[in-house]
Amino acid sequence: MNIVVCVKQVPDTATERKLRSDDNTLDRDAADGVINELCEYAVEEALRLKEAHGGEVTVLTMGPAKAADTIRKALAMGADKAVHLVDDALHGSDVLGTSYALAQTLKKIGFDLVVLGSESTDARTGVLAAMLAERLSVPQLTFANKVEIDGTSISIQRVTDYGYDRVEASLPAVVSVVEKINEPRYPSFKGIMAAKKKPVEKLGVADAEIDASQVGLANSWSEVVDFAAAPPRAAGTVVKDEGDGGVKTAEFLASKKFV
Amino acid sequence: MSEILVLVEHVEGQVKKVTLELLTLARKLGTPSAVWAGEGYSPDAQAKLAEYGAEKIYVADAAEIGDYVVAPKAELLAQLVSEKSPAAVFVAATAEAKEIAGRLAIKIDSGVLTDAVGMEDGLLADQSIFGGGVNVHSRVTKGTPIVAVRPNATPIEAAAGAGAEERVTVDVSDAAKGARVVERVKQEKGARPELTEASIVVSGGRGVGSAENFAVIEALADSLGAAVGASRAVTDAGWYPHQFQVGQTGKTVSPQLYIAAGISGAIQHRAGMQTAKTIIAINKDSEAPIFELADFGVVGDLHQVVPQLTEEITKRK
Ligand SMILES: Cc1cc2nc3c(=O)[nH]c(=O)nc-3n(C[C@H](O)[C@H](O)[C@H](O)COP(=O)(O)OP(=O)(O)OC[C@H]3O[C@@H](n4cnc5c(N)ncnc54)[C@H](O)[C@@H]3O)c2cc1C
Ligand SMILES: Nc1ncnc2c1ncn2[C@@H]1O[C@H](COP(=O)(O)O)[C@@H](O)[C@H]1O
């Protein structure tokens, strides 16, 4: 089985994240880039599926040169090889442009199964997997907390507000995972060393047959008009419980007309 | 004024509050038409949508629409967009409706904005990003703007609309039938309001100590008519089901009031609750980062403070 796992590099949520004042896009240089947390779960699931059913796991990342660190991390966890879609023309692509570029690349490299995280910590759109399914005309199996494959049949548990839906489809398909699905492994020392030798193919826009007029900031379908730091929350009142903490809280609630 | 399509969120035939919010919002920017997709449409639903300003209600209530994941609803909306040429399409920023919006965006070659917390003239969307740290204005520059708006972002106001019903037939394409829903499994759902819709949320964290102890959180929630939420430490430990998790990989909530008991306030938790209007924290560690957000905080043992608070609220009712 040819499994492709889409992995994104995002600014570390523990550092201050910023937008660039020149073009209102994410400032990827301001913060350390780390693997999007949910993508680790996607890599783990891809590896488990490969361990159970055989095949190969390819990491696919679209991002600037420094995203190579994130690719190495996924390779160190055990993925076999990687494709790095990197081209200045891609800078500032919105979710339509990103989904288009990734879909073109997936068509080019081929897949039986595409695995994604259900959301990234920077964009937080949570729509990329659905968009890839739409663009590739394959079944959408998203928000999975369980994935089972039997031959070319695939079924998942799709997390919902009320519990879950059991969803069935045939491969090829697109899956996105939630963090309850597994516990991502830590790369071993051996894995880290091995990752250095694994092949990483770099593709530009032309290599992946991406129409440059559909990607990049200038061609996006949406734009950030302006932005500002959120006004800080006014400092609140903090009291120490002297046996009357509950009563004091009730008084606060009453003052705000909640009770 | 120009037509704005509003995709209706409904459960068991009941229109959800977020839809009334979207209708209220759409009225300020145009003329709302509600779009009903899936089973359960009834005269009650029609009355509710009309009460909040729906001029038209497009009804596609074939069972088939719900039998497949997301794609049929995106097809329905794409069909309506091409027939009616609306000025915009609004959906709720729920996991599923965002996916519908995403697929629709590709079908109609239009931009999509997710998690708007407000809309201004010119279909300019307010978004709060980086866990609440930065506010942005954004807009769609190509096609028919598709906007997913967060629940609780708009206070609802009734204003009668005609509610004229128009039946829509959809032929779900084979391409949209790829992912079949074969079973819907409902896990415990009590009488409490739904987490993302609730105007008050009471959440418990690791400090609650056990699944049994969650009863103190539930009792406080019930005294306030609130929904119950949980941190990931709690859902990981199996003390409370995952669908109640608040945070980056759980639900994003923007209630009027959020009470965090025994929650440290990790960045991933904050990402899901930072836009709450009023925040109360109860934690025995005065250094817990949750206090940085709190409008009111109590440094103390939640097992003392929470039951006392519940009792006091009950007394005052
Ligand atoms: C990929 C990823 C996604 C994540 N997504 C989420 C998410 O969606 N939501 C989420 O919540 N977290 C998420 N996390 C986890 C997050 O980093 C924290 O680990 C988690 O929020 C901690 O939960 P907590 O505050 O309940 O527990 P802790 O951090 O252990 O805090 C418990 C708090 O309770 C206090 N306490 C203990 N006993 C008492 C008592 N008797 N009375 C009063 N206070 C007491 C302690 O002082 C402490 O501050 C995610 C992490 C990762 C890596
Ligand atoms: N630039 C990218 N390169 C590879 N995968 C991506 C990229 N952007 C998003 N993804 C995938 O899409 C998921 C959801 O991201 P998002 O739609 O940004 O919330 C992530 O967990 C990744 O699996």
Automatic annotation (TrEMBL), chain A:
Q: How does it assemble?
A: Heterodimer of an alpha and a beta subunit.
The protein's matches in InterPro entries, at most eight in alphabetical order, are given as:
ETF_a/b_N, ETF_b, ETF_beta_N, Rossmann-like_a/b/a_fold
Q: Does the keyword Electron transport apply?
A: yes
Which Gene3D superfamilies does this one have? Answer: HUPs
Query: Locate the Electron transfer flavoprotein alpha/beta-subunit N-terminal domain: which residues?
Result: 23-212
What Pfam families does the annotation carry? Answer: ETF (PF01012)
Q: Does the keyword Transport apply?
A: yes
Query: Which is an annotated GO molecular function term of this record?
Result: electron transfer activity
Q: What does this protein do?
A: The electron transfer flavoprotein serves as a specific electron acceptor for other dehydrogenases. It transfers the electrons to the main respiratory chain via ETF-ubiquinone oxidoreductase (ETF dehydrogenase).
Q: Which family does it belong to?
A: Belongs to the ETF beta-subunit/FixA family.
Which coenzymes or cofactors are required? FAD
| This protein's name | Electron transfer flavoprotein subunit beta
Tell me which UniProt keywords the record has, alphabetically: Electron transport, Transport
Q: Which GO terms describe its cellular component?
A: cytosol
UniProtKB/TrEMBL annotation, chain B:
Q: Which cofactor does it need?
A: FAD
GO terms classed as biological process: fatty acid beta-oxidation using acyl-CoA dehydrogenase
Q: Which residues form a coiled coil?
A: none
**Keywords for this protein:** Electron transport, FAD, Flavoprotein, Transport
Signal sequence coordinates: none
Listed GO MF terms: electron transfer activity; flavin adenine dinucleotide binding
Which Gene3D superfamilies has this protein been placed in?
HUPs (3.40.50.620), TPP-binding domain (3.40.50.1220)
**Which PROSITE patterns does this chain map to?**
ETF_ALPHA (PS00696)
Pfam families assigned to the protein according to its UniProt record, in alphabetical order? ETF (PF01012), ETF_alpha (PF00766)
Oligomer and partners: Heterodimer of an alpha and a beta subunit.
Record's family?
A: Belongs to the ETF alpha-subunit/FixB family.
What this chain does, per the record?
The electron transfer flavoprotein serves as a specific electron acceptor for other dehydrogenases. It transfers the electrons to the main respiratory chain via ETF-ubiquinone oxidoreductase (ETF dehydrogenase).
Task: From the Swiss-Prot or TrEMBL record, give the protein name.
Answer: Electron transfer flavoprotein alpha subunit apoprotein
